[in-house]
Amino acid sequence: MSKKISILMIVVILLSTLSACGSNGSKYPETVESNLVEGVDYIDHALTYDGSGLTYDKSMWYVNDLKDIPLADPHVYVEDGKYYIVGTSDRDNNVIDCFTTTDFVSYTRHTSIYNPANFEGWESEAAAIYAPELYCFDGVYYMYYSAFDRGQTDPDGISRRRNSVVVADNPLGPYRPLQNDKVDGLNTPVFLDKNVKFGALDITVFVDDDKQMYMYYSVATNENQHIVGVKMNSPYEVDWSTYTPLVVPGALNSTNSILKPLNWEMFRDGTPIVEAPYLIKSNGKYYMTYSVNGCWDKFYNVCYAVSDSPLGNFVKPYQSGKTWTNLLLGYPGTNIGNATVNNQWSGFASGTAHHCFFNIGDQVMIGYHAHQDRNGNGRYERRAFAFDYLHFDKNGVPFCNGPTYSIQPLPEDLSGYFNISPMAEVKAENVTNAGAINDNYIVDCYNLAGESDKEVSLGTGYSYIELKFDRTYEIGGIAVYNSAFYEKLLAEIVYIDLGNGNAVHYPQFSYDQYVNDAKEFIFPSSAFTIEFLNTFEADHVVICVKSDHSVALNEIVVLGK
Fold first, then answer.
1. Sign (positive/negative) of CA torsion 51, 55, 60, 65?
2. CB of 307 within 8 A of CB of 286?
């Protein structure tokens, strides 16, 4: 072979490579061929928007539309693949109702699984039962709750709320007062805190790894509400000698309750509120999570404090000069100006708090209530159940992707698909912070300092992100989460390529549903979502974007099995 021919062949090879990979010399092409047909092989959910919502496969995706479970203060108990959801009833809050589901698509309502009127016990005639929680210990089902005590009044003459428990032989009851040689739950609240002058509410129970039980609840005084904790000797017996104040609104910890730099926990005029405690353990640490600012307030949010022990000292993450450093769920607010998500978009979410944690398979979820009127901020808002994902960072610190009001993938135990992206190797071109594309973290509170650093930035021109999986998977869907920052909004993707001719050209963002140009706001946790009607195998995915200004993405979720 002559030298002249060799040089010619090299030139041909180079030209062929540039043609295949793009005019800018990228190893990724600017266009790809596809065998997929929209509506036949896949559905671009944005194209199904009819002015009120999207069309999607409910066995794969969900939306918190706040229609199915009209309960406040929810708690979820899971047994044998069935989910029992109890809470403060919108129908009649003098009784306890329960919703059951196996798929979070269809629900059955079971009314009056506990009705105090059947027993004429210590509860007032208008019992006003709040925040029931359901547990099973040694084959007995215990329903913990708060109710008004007809025999005790606070200094204003109003019946005090007390904490108690009723029992049943199955999750759906009927429940009855607990009476034995140690307690008389018919005539007296089982957990009668004699230190409480105004009331106790929102009881919750935690069982540690060593089987030691703890009880937590909110106590009302004439100065504030605060969270207390106590050891339990049994599901119905308390060691009152261990009674410990744990969380004071605004204060860094219970041992320094005078200094209150966390002013975002005290937006309510008058008595500051902290209620609805719920404990979760992660990486050897105890996270006390709780709600602040009043259940009727649109700034009703979930915050947290952390401790090395179930009874504290609980310390709230705080950095001087920063706000909402201990926020877990909700949208930050102030009483002033237009500097918050809720001020910018009053119709997105309101009152997202009073929560619980539960598992769908191996995935931890957070269940909570939200105002059905998303403009919120009325004194007595109707509330409904919602749920979203809870994740943990490398140090075990919990974080939530939510609250959401956009289409989200269901956990694997319900859909059969799981997010394979976190196991992928990430490669990228013209991209900054590419490793954040599969870390499970979706920025949703963009007015918090430093949140923008957690997004993935794409430069002008063509940008590419490739996820190379650890093996071949059967692909059922994909979600590409947009930026939380209006100025970094991505309106269109050039293609999503999964190889072998399986590509989606120009998937759309549901702009009409998720973007408000007048207020320069994007629905947090909203995504380009594609549902494949005919699954196929793939070992990688490439996202190609072209933009004339810097844009950003949050996360790529690929549903595989």
1. positive
2. yes
